[in-house]
Structure formats: structure tokens, C-alpha cells
Amino acid sequence: REGRGGGPARAAGRGAAVLRRAWRERRAVLLEPSYTPLVAACLCLAEGGVNLWVIRRVPYTEIDWKAYMQEVEGFANGTLDYTRLKGDTGPLVYPAGFVYIFLGLYYATGRGTDVRLAQYLFAGLYLLNLLLVFRIYYRTNKVPPYVFFFMCCASYRIHSIFVLRLFNDPVAMAILFLAINLFLEEHWSWGCLLFSLAVSVKMNILLFAPGLLFLLLQRFGLLGCIPKLCICALLQVFLGLPFLLVNPMGYLTRSFDLGRQFQFKWTVNWRFLPEEVFQNRAFHVTLLLAHLAGLGLFALHRWHRPKESILALLKDPAERKPTSPPLTIVFVLFSSNFLGVCCSRSLHYQFYVWYFHTLPYLLWCTPTTKLAHMPKVLLLGVIELCWNTYPSTVCSSLSLHICHGLVLLQLWYGTAPLPVTHAPPPSRRPAAISKKAQ
């Protein structure tokens, strides 16, 4: 009897000891990146409740969901000419992967009528996206866990994009983060397949493409990366084949229209410009040249560390001179995307999800002194405020560009990160050492 009664007592004692240790180490839990899994688990549980509360309490706002359903309904009814697929907001302008994924949502939600079910599905997507992002941050081991509170519960705009607006941008980004996880595990072929699938949902994923190309050349050389690029291209052909067989030019011009004009009333980043400048082709060309120049500078001076020419990337890796360790995959991909965001012709409110989850890494990937933590948190807050100002103003758009410029300066002048090995949390190290000594 005493043995049976002692079990619950011992369990309670162990639980109390864990809580006491966590309280003693509360500073380390908030500041040590090795505690990311613990903080991530707590935040994911909290986010489940937050998303349920948002769905039940905040009114759903119809923007694009109905149009999405109308566009894929045309495909469900047998229309294969891409130029004839349209909804209330205009013609279909996304690649074929979007059609297949949202066709599944179309049938799952009773032909798009059960919006509440769609919201729950997007809440699940939100949590999956968060888990994939946390796994990336754990692998990089750079960001202090307290920053994740600002990346989760504090952003009204991101919750709105996922569960109140049901945009396709979160779908593309979740697939992209899955691809990055595969890259981190050295599954490059599967990662390229998922990367191409993300592009087929929305073309903003192409902003990561320059960084991915650099990584493929660095890892495999020119000849070695060709099969990976073929995987990306063949998936696009396979997904678009039903439409390519009927009207190939119609499909290509609609789904990959790089010259599409944006409406000035929705811009978040260029509100301080006159509308005639915003719509001017010369302005668009200038932004494109700035984007290419930024990519070139980062490729030469931030991504490429060895002293030998960058053309050495074209060689087989076995034939290159011994070099310093390569930069982290995440740094190259996230900075490549961020350069594209900074030079975008227009950012709409749903585009915030393109880089929101990468901001903590971009701010904390370089060495950070104790006094620098607060300005970085403040920078996150100002960016969030800019994206929550509706409609955008001259002040909010200028502030957004200033914040982007500060992040770029840090990425340029800071010490670029190297791949890291994971150390156990501080509380476990003495025990491990003592066992080793014994």
C-alpha cells in the first residue's frame, strides 16, 4: 500500500522540481536559442486557442475567397483554356498548382460555401506553417526565444491573412518553408520539387530563387545543379500540361505575367510617391535594376566568402580549393527574398506573409550585443505598425522603407552566420559533464 501511494507523490515531487528549475532558469529559457523547442511548444498551444478565438469572435471578411472558388469551378466544369478562367475580381493570374490545391478546398468546403470550415483548415495551415518555421529557427540556433512571442501572438495582420482572408499566399509560404526544411536535411531533390510546387501556387516564391541557385551551384557545381533545376522545370510543365495542351500562350501569359500592373490604392510601400510615378515603366525598370544590383552585391560579398573568384562555383565541388565553411542555407535564402521585397513594385497587405516569419532571423542572425536587443524589437514593432496602418499613408510607407533599409544595413555590415551545431540547454550541460567525468 505504501508503494502504491508513493507513486503519485513521487510524480508530483518530480513535477514540482521541474517547475522550480524552469523558474530558476527563466532567464535562460527566454534568451538561449537551445530552448526554442520548449518555447515553440508553448506558443503553438497558445496559437491554437488564439486562432479559434479569432475565427469565432472576429467577423470574416470576404476579399478573394469567392473569386478563388469561381476560378477553380471553371476548371471543375471542364474549362482548360486559362484565359476563360475568372472570378469576380478578374481573370485567374496564378499558376496551375493554385488551381489543384484550391480545387481540393472547393470540394472540401461544399463548393466553397462552408467558409467556417475553410477558416478551420487555414488555422491548421497556420499551425503547420509555424511548426515548420520553428524547426528552421531551431536548426539555425540564432534567435533568442523571447522574440518568438512577437512572431506569434502579437501580429494581428498575419492572423487576419490566414484565417480571416483565406489568401493563397500562406499556402505558398507553408510549402516553401517545408522545402527549406528539406534543404537543411540535405534532401535537395525533394526540396527543389517542393520549391517548384510553392512557385506554382504563387510567383512571389521566385524571390527565393536567386539564393537557391547560388546554393545549388555552391553545393553541386554547374553540372550537378542542372538535374535539380530540371526537377523544378518538369514539375511546372507537368502541373500546367492540361492547360498547355489547349492554349499554351494563354496559360503562360496569365499565370506567369511578370509585367502585371498593380493598383495604387492598395500599395503599402509606395504611398509617398505620386500615382503617375508609381505606374511609370521607368520606375519599374529602376526597381528591377536595383534588385539585380543588390543580388549581385550580396552574392559577391556576403554569400561568397572564399577569396577565389565567384566563377569557381561553376566547377565541380571536388575540384575547388579548400574553402571556409559555407554560409547557412537560411541566410542566403532569407536575404535573397528580403532583397526582392525591398525592391517590389508594390506590396499589398497580404504580401506581409512573404517575409514576416523571416524577420526575426534577419535581425538576429548577426551577433547582437545586450543593448542592441531593444532596438531590434522596436524595429519589429514599427514594421508591424506600418502593415497595420490601413489605408497606408505617406508616413507609414516611408517608415517601412526606413526599417527595411536598417535591416539591409545590418545584413551587409554584420558578421554573416555559419552553420551551427546544437548544444543542449545550459541546465543539462553540468549533468552531462559530471557523467562524463564519472
Automatic annotation (TrEMBL):
Topological category with respect to the lipid bilayer: Multi-pass membrane protein
Gene Ontology molecular function: dol-P-Man:Man(5)GlcNAc(2)-PP-Dol alpha-1,3-mannosyltransferase activity
Annotated TM spans: 92-108, 120-138, 187-217, 229-246, 282-300
Statement: the UniProt record of this protein carries the keyword Endoplasmic reticulum: yes
Keyword check for Iron-sulfur: no
Enzyme Commission number: 2.4.1.258
Protein name: Dol-P-Man:Man(5)GlcNAc(2)-PP-Dol alpha-1,3-mannosyltransferase
Organism phylogeny: Eukaryota, Metazoa, Chordata, Craniata, Vertebrata
